[in-house]
């Protein structure tokens, strides 16, 4: 099966990889690495650890491609592996929960070529404060908000990636947004309280366009 533009689908490429095509898995990585990187960066909150998490996850996916059962999109499967790698790293560093946050200006050879989208100069300090608030959320809430509010995944797909029920995702997002709203109350503008919990979470600059949805299988 091919995608709408005639290119091989992710599932076809994964099958080609299993059949010995040396280029197929690299094409999957090329298609999805920027978004995987954005998820890892927002989840871990540290560029070095995010890069290591993505590298570890992609190696894991490459070696264990035969375990892909086809009951979800390939991109969902990859995101699940990346998020799990990030959560493992976060749990290992629980004794040091506060880490330097990315400034959106650095790129290295082992990271996606495109620079991380940065906040406009006037909002840069605010963006850093919001990122700090995101980094201080409990890991499960942070992962849910990164997927739903920052990267734009539907609740159903975020639930698939994290391996929990949709109601759990909704609950984690609601609790996370509430915590961020408390932490960021001083950033609200206007007297009508129009900046609600959801908008506080969405202030976090995203990676690739948040409205983009899953690729074809």
TrEMBL record:
InterPro entries per record: RNA_pol_sigma-70-like (IPR039425), RNA_pol_sigma-70_dom (IPR014284), RNA_pol_sigma70_r2 (IPR007627), RNA_pol_sigma70_r4_t2 (IPR013249), RNA_pol_sigma_r2 (IPR013325), RNA_pol_sigma_r3/r4-like (IPR013324), WH-like_DNA-bd_sf (IPR036388)
GO molecular function: DNA binding; sigma factor activity
Residue ranges with Polar residues bias: 196-205
Record GO biological process: DNA-templated transcription initiation
Gene3D superfamilies: 1.10.1740.10, Winged helix-like DNA-binding domain superfamily/Winged helix DNA-binding domain
Keyword Transcription regulation included in the entry's annotation: yes
Domain RNA polymerase sigma factor 70 region 4 type: 130-180
Domain RNA polymerase sigma-70 region: 28-94
NCBIfam families, per database record: PRK09643.1, sigma70-ECF
Family: Belongs to the sigma-70 factor family. ECF subfamily.
Protein name, UniProt field: RNA polymerase sigma factor SigM
């Amino acid at each position: 099966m091919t995608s709408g533009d005639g290119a091989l689908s992710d599932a076809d490429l994964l099958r080609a990889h299993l059949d010995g095509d040396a280029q197929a898995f690299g094409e999957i990585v090329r298609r999805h690495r920027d978004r995987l990187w954005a998820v890892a960066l927002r989840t871990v909150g540290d560029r070095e650890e995010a890069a290591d998490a993505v590298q570890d996850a992609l190696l894991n996916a490459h070696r264990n491609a035969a375990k892909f059962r086809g009951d979800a999109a390939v991109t969902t499967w990859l995101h699940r592996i990346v998020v799990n790698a990030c959560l493992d790293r976060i749990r290992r560093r629980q004794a040091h929960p506060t880490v330097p946050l990315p400034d959106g200006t650095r790129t290295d050879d082992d990271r996606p070529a495109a620079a991380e989208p940065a906040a406009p100069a006037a909002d840069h300090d605010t963006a850093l404060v919001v990122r700090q608030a995101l980094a201080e959320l409990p890991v499960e809430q942070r992962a849910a908000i990164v997927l739903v509010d920052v990267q734009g995944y539907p609740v159903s797909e975020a639930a698939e990636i994290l391996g929990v029920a949709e109601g759990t995702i909704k609950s984690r997002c609601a609790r996370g947004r509430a915590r961020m709203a408390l932490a960021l109350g001083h950033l609200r503008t206007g007297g009508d309280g129009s900046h609600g919990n959801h908008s506080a979470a969405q202030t976090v600059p995203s990676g690739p366009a948040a409205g983009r949805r899953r690729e074809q299988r």
